[in-house]
Amino acid sequence: MAEIKVPELAESITEGTIAQWLKQPGDTVEKGEFIVELETDKVNVEVISEEAGVVQELLAEEGDTVEVGQVIATVGEGSGEAAASAPKEEAKKEEAPKEDLAKEEAKQEAPADQEAAPTEEESTSSDRTIASPAARKLAREKGIDLASITPVDPMGRVRVQDVEAHGSKPAAAPAKQEAPKASAPAAPSSDEESGRVVRQKMTRRRQTIAKRLLEVKQSTAMLTTFNEIDMTNVMELRKRKKDKFQQDHDVKLGFMSFFTKAVTAALKKYPYVNAEIDGTDVLLKQFYDVGIAVSTEEGLVVPIVRDTDKKNFAEIEASIGELATKARDKKLSIGDMTGGSFTITNGGVFGSLLSTPILNGTQVGILGMHTIQKRPIAVGDNVEIRPMMYVALSYDHRVIDGSDSVGFLKTVKELIENPEDLLLES
Q1: Do the strands 65-67 and 365-369 form a parallel or antiparallel pair, or are they unpaired?
Q2: Which one is catalytic: 153, 329, 397, 421?
Q3: What is the pTM of this model?
Q4: Counting beta carbons within 10 angstroms of the beta carbon of residue 248, is it exposed (0 to 12), middle (13 to 18) or buried (19 or more)?
């Protein structure tokens, strides 16, 4: 018999949530095959079986919180057919005549108080009910007989949701209790009971995002400075070079590589934007690992493009594309998301014209890109229609002074408006 345990996830992660069971009791599993998907604060992790065999029992339900090292399933020897037949054998036992059980009970000493404890038959029926460990525990806490619960599962397995639904039903009034007066007004139902409000449990990742964003707001002196960039030159350069760029490098030339290179050059010029506070010390980072925010169905994640000062445009575009694909396919590893020194987020892909991005974790700076919009701009003594983008730099004022924040953003603006200069910064 082999135990499936929650593996070591990362140094800062001690627990996870069962997102999806990939195998069920009775299913055969090969050594190294995925058996369950765990959702952690940062990424989803698929856990493998260390032994080949048949899944005997699942010890946690989908949605349960489990800790590192906790046993969540067992795998034993045998065939899938033999394990699957177990419920059938159990069902046959339930069909035994009740008269036989009654005869056995007659031989035992009857309890002194018939109302004080359930009969042996009721207890046995409850024990035979197929239910998850979590459901059994909850039923005991609520004092609910499992045999009285009608499960939603077509196989008859009682889950936590069934126990909660059963417990929420109004209990029948005792026979001796006086019926309520007809004149008494009925208590108004809540919004949830009336269907006006639907309650949903936040995913572990959404809970973590909410917690950390609130911590950043409460623990930093965050300010935001703005500027606008004339995108004319970089758009024309991209238009001229994108076909050959894709032909040569098999990757599309986007705006993110230009902004990543511009940010890297600005970080070199203003090192305190590439820093971190550690107690009363400031850690000036001598590397340039830029996080690129990616929106997924479960929330925003920020995978890291490493060593942006050593990568060319093609390598940066390839890294961004690979990380974005892994993020949307839930294939990011912990290493893909840790250790960044600065972050870029692009709300422009959703049509955002202007926003104030929130700092990411312990970083002290984040650049917000926005949608490109044609606007009348004064060029010399003339007014021209130009493609313009608002950019925002949110920064921790405890480390970065106003002059550095404005200078940093102005450097990014100048490099994007004169993209040829980026070649000199590479």
Answers
A1: unpaired
A2: 397
A3: 0.62
A4: exposed
